Structures are given as structure tokens and as C-alpha cells.
Amino acid sequence: MGKSTTMTVRIPSEVSSKLDGLARDTKRSKAYLAGEAITSYVERNAWQVARIKAALAEAESGAPGIPHEDMELWTNSWGTDHELPPPEPKA
């Protein structure tokens, strides 16, 4: 991990109380637990946003894709007596 930065965050008092208990039970500092939570959140959301941006760029490039309506019909058919085959990409 790289260099650390200090910051102040505001959290609801009920979350603070739970954080106190969790820190005590895990023998970790509240700052450590908060840092781990923020790191996890940022990594997870940065990954997701990067994939969404890549998918939008691909869709805007004119690459073949599956229309939303076709995907919706397919997923709505799951678990029914008339399950549809996966839709094919369209140019």
C-alpha cells in the first residue's frame, strides 16, 4: 500500500457506536477499520464504474451488442416452461 492521507469524516452516531464495538471486539482501531471500509468501497466502485465506462464506449463504437429488450425477454423467461435461448448480438 502507498502513502497514507489523513481526513475527517462525519458518520451517524449509531454507526459510530457500532464502530466502537467492532473496534473493541476485533482489537483494531476505529481509524484502521474506517480506512479498510473506505478502501474496499473505493476499489469496488472504481472497478464497477470503469467496466460501465468501457461497456458504454464499446456500445457507442457500433460494436455488435444485444438490445436491452432482448435481454429482458430472455431473463424474464428464466424458470418458466417456455425459457428462451440466449439472444444473439446484433450489429
What report would you give on this structure?
The longest helix is centred in the middle third of the chain and has 31 residues, at 30-60. 60% of the residues lie in helices and 0% in strands. The chain has two domains: 13-60, no CATH class; 64-91, no CATH class. It is mainly alpha-helical and 91 residues long.
Q: What's the helix and strand layout?
A:
Elements: H1 13-26, H2 30-60, H3 68-77
Outline the biggest β-sheet.
Answer: none
Element order, helices and strands?
A: HHH
Task: Describe the global form.
Answer: elongated
User: What's the end-to-end separation, in Å?
Assistant: 43 Å
SS elements, strand count: 0
Mean pLDDT: 94
Give the number of helices: 3
Percentage of residues assigned to helices:
55-70%
Into how many domains do the coordinates divide?
Answer: 2
- Strand fraction: under 5%
Cα gyration radius (Å): 22 Å
Q: Give the low-confidence spans.
A: none
Given helix and strand content, the structural type is mainly alpha
Tags for this model:
91 residues; mainly alpha; 3 helices
Write a compact overview of the structure shown:
The mean pLDDT is 94. The protein is mainly alpha-helical.
